[in-house]
Structures are given as structure tokens and as C-alpha cells.
Amino acid sequence: MQRRSNATGLLLHYTNGGPVKGLQAPAAVRWVAQTLEEAGFETWAVGGAVRDSLAGRAGGDWDLATRAHPGEVRRIFRRTVPIRMDHGTVGVLARDGTMYEVTTFRRDVETTGRHAVVAFAESLDEDLARRDFTINALAWHPLREVLHDPFDGAADLERKILRTVGRPAERFSEDYLRVLRALRFAGAFGLEIEGDTWRALTAAVGRTGILSPERIREELEKVLAGSVRPSGALALYAASGILAFLYPELDALVTHPRAENGRWFAHSLRTVDALPAIRTELRWAALLEGIGEPEGPSGAGDGGLPAGDRAFLRTAALLTRLRTSNARVAALAELTRWMARPPDVGADDATLRRWLSAVGRERLRPLFRVWCAEVRADEPEGSPRTRRHLRALWTRLRGVARSGVPLGLSDLALTGRDLIRMGYTPGPHFGEVLDHLLDQVLEDPVRNRTADLQGEAVAWLEARGKSPGGRRG
User: Fold this and answer.
1) Which of 155, 296, 335, 470 has minimal Cβ neighbours within 10 Å of its Cβ?
2) For residue 140, what are the β-bridge partners?
3) Which 3 state secondary structure label does DSSP give 237?
4) Nearest Cα to 178, choosing from 189, 193, 159, 190?
């Protein structure tokens, strides 16, 4: 049977055991396979690289499945790395230093919804039968150049269908992460989830709570980093109910209106799509941008706060729940805080300096990248007024950032050490007086002279009963 690939236009032979033209593994993969085959062990390329190549996409990581057990693999190759020996996976280092994962054929012995206990299998078909979706149950022989496709995954790819290997409910119950993987694959490849698979998926949503926060976060990370248009998978997150279950803060945006018409979630998805995949952090920020808009209870203790401050708290709470690093939580929360607060392009210089001081020079470029993506997302044809506005604001703020004017405490010509040398005892008042001095300098940068700041500091401290040596006046 011959079919023409919609994605590549290449004539592919999908007959089980037949040749696949136009699919070529790297030389190092062929070397690994040949070495194992010459030692008497059947070996196939499996996983994402085979699937992606059939879909006309650049292949990802090339993984191999073999009848050889881990100890045998390590004896055959001179340079290996034990990765998950209990699961049969060994890293084999090719001559160029690239590492390829080689895993023994496996079958599931017991599944818990989170993890599987596996045993080594004797055949490739046993190994493929334990996989989640037909498009992932593909194997390709890099030496004979034939495709082994016992579940018609290649045909499903062409028909744009996502379905499980075997009974959907059983497949999801083996590992509930497959709910999220299904949404990611369907979105990334533009697939329609087959009816029985969709019904089993939505029924399993409530069981995803047993997954670790790290696994949940990593799936969303893959959606944001691995697709030209993450909106496909994210829209399925909302439609399936997984958004409401795992990310209620985001689900609240699905129907929440924007002042500029439309809904916040739809706007966020368009903005995410308008940012390049390499800007994963900005895609996170764009997705979370409107999180502070709904005023209802969020569990973050943010009642009565401005939307920007609510966005900061809710972003921090969500990312902390996903066990994100503290540095990343802080960075993304600050971005969402300021995304809704651009200054007026007609503001005076002092106002722009104060805004940039609060935001930080390092956040200026990321904020503008998201704002420009918003313009592209909401008005694909471009709005001269809006684009002119952004260009003018960028010119003014970049000029302030590059001018060298003081914007932070570290830029002041007077420091806490200077106050100590002046005879003052350190305490909370040091931070207060330095904040006061910064405010004065932001109003008029010419005031940033040591002598002037010393005089202003003395006057401020004396007005509050502070004198050198810690004595009260």
C-alpha cells in the first residue's frame, strides 16, 4: 500500500515490514544498530524521531530498542552510561560523543497510574504494545530501512487521528500522564482525538491529581517549547477540563472579558503563538499575563489589590505549586506584574525613570517583546497607531536605560557604608533614607552628587530623631 505524505510530499511505503523512502537515520544510529545486530541482537529505532520523520518534521532524539539486556549492551560498547538500568536503558556514546539511549524490549508487569513495573520482553511487538498512542508505536530498522507498524500509527498520522494502542481507558489508567501527552501530541501535530480516546481522556482528568507537580509542569513546558502554535494543545487543555482541574487560575480566563473585546484566554493563546518557540520564558509570561484580571477569590490572599499585584501573587502561587525554581518564580511573577502597567508614552522623564526603576532595566526588552507579540496577535494586519505608540515608548525608555542616569540604589553616589562613616548606626532607617535619596535622584538625576546626598540624608535623618553615634537629638 502506498500513500503520499501530506507533510512532505514524499512517497512513503507504509506496508508493515516494507521500505520507507526518505527516512534516514544518522550514521551514528546506524553504527549502534549494526554493532548490536552483528552481536546477534535485533535492534530498531523507536519513538519520537521515527514519528516526527514520518510527519515531515526534523527528527528529534533517536532512541533504539533491542533484544540485548543492559549488561550485554555495556559489554558490546566501549563507552556507555548507565541511565535507568532497572528499566533497561543504557546510554551509548558514539564516536562523535553523541549519546543514544538503547533500551531492552520491555513489557509492563504492573502499573499504578504514575509508574510502571517492567520486565524485559523477547519481541519488538511486546514492546510496541505497551506504548501509549499508535503514532508512538512505530519502529524503523535503520539498516534494512523498513517500518514496523503493527497498530497503523503511520496511517493515523496521515489521517490526522490520535488514538491509543488498545483500550483507551486501560491505557490512560496505566499512567495518567498520558492524558496530558495526548493533548500535547494532538495540538502539536494538528490531530483530532478519536471519539473513544477522547471520552476516556476526559473521564480520566480527575485522576491526574496523583501525578507529581514536576511531571505536570514538564508537560506544559513541552507544549510551550516544542510547538510552533502551542494554542492547539492549550485549547484542548481547556476543552478537556484539565485546565480547570490543574490550572483553575487560567481556566478563569476562558470566559473572562477583555476591555479590548474578546476573552482573555483567547488573547493569551494568540500572544503565545506570536512568540518564537525559543522564547519559552516569554511564552510562559504571555500565558499567565491575564491571571490577575478576575477579581474573584484565588486562594492567594489578593483581594482588593490592583490587577498587576494579583498577577504577581497568583503567578508565584501557581509556579510554586508546580515546584518551579525560586529564581524562575520571581522572574516570571515580576514580568506578569508589569505587563499590565506600561507607562504613558507622553509621560514626563521623571515618571519614565520611576517606572523603569521599579521594573528594572533587565525586564525592559522582555516586556516589549511580549507587548509587540500582543499587537501582532490582536491585529495581524498591524495597527499603525499601536505600533507607532510602541516604537515611541521603546525609543524613550531605551534612551533612559542607556543614558546612565541612576535607576537603583546601587547607582546612588551615597551608600550605607558612607552613612556609617558619617557616624550613623545601621538599622532599618538606612534603607528608608536611601529609598528617599533615590526618589530625589529619580526626580532630578543632577542631585546624584555625594555632597548633595549627604546633606539631604542628614536633614532626613535629623527630622526623624537620628543623629551620628546613634544618639537621639
Assistant:
1) 296
2) 45, 147
3) helix
4) 193
Provide, rounded to the nearest whole percent, the portion of the chain with pLDDT above 70.
91
Q: Phi-psi category of 131—alpha, beta or left, where left has phi over 0 and alpha has psi -120 to 50?
A: beta
Q: What is the largest CA-CA distance in the chain?
A: 96
Cell, residue 301: 490572599
Cα-Cα end-to-end distance for the chain: 96
* Distance in angstroms (rounded) separating the CA atoms of residues 346 and 375: 20
CA distance 60 to 223: 15
pLDDT at position 389 is 87
> Any idea what DSSP says for residue 257?
B
Question: Is-contact 163 182, C-beta < 8 A?
Answer: no
Answer yes or no: are the C-beta atoms of 164 and 197 closer than 8 Å: yes
pLDDT over threshold 50, residue 380 = yes
**Residue 9, all three cell numbers:** 510530499
User: Picking from 10-24, 52-66, 456-470, which range would have the lowest pLDDT averaged per residue?
Assistant: 10-24
In this structure, are strands 99-104 and 11-13 parallel, antiparallel, or unpaired? unpaired
Q: How far is CA 404 from CA 4, 309, 454, in A?
A: 60, 29, 21
> Going by C-beta distance under 8 Å and a sequence separation of 6 or more, which residues neighbour residue 386?
375, 379
Of 281, 278, 266, nearest in space to 377 by CA: 266
Cα(388)–Cα(257) distance, integer angstroms = 26
CB 162, CB 131: distance < 8 Å:
no
| C-alpha cell read off for 174 | 496505566
Q: How far out from the chain centre does Cα 21 lie? A: 34
Which of 135, 133, 79, 82 minimizes the C-alpha distance to 104?
82
3-class secondary structure, 391: helix
Q: Which helix (H) or strand (E) holds 99?
A: strand 99-104
How many angstroms separate the CA atoms of 82 and 145, rounded? 28
Mark out the alpha helices in 190-279 (DSSP H runs).
195-204, 213-225, 231-240, 242-246, 248-251, 264-274
Task: Examine the pLDDT at 56 and tell me if it is beyond 90.
Answer: no
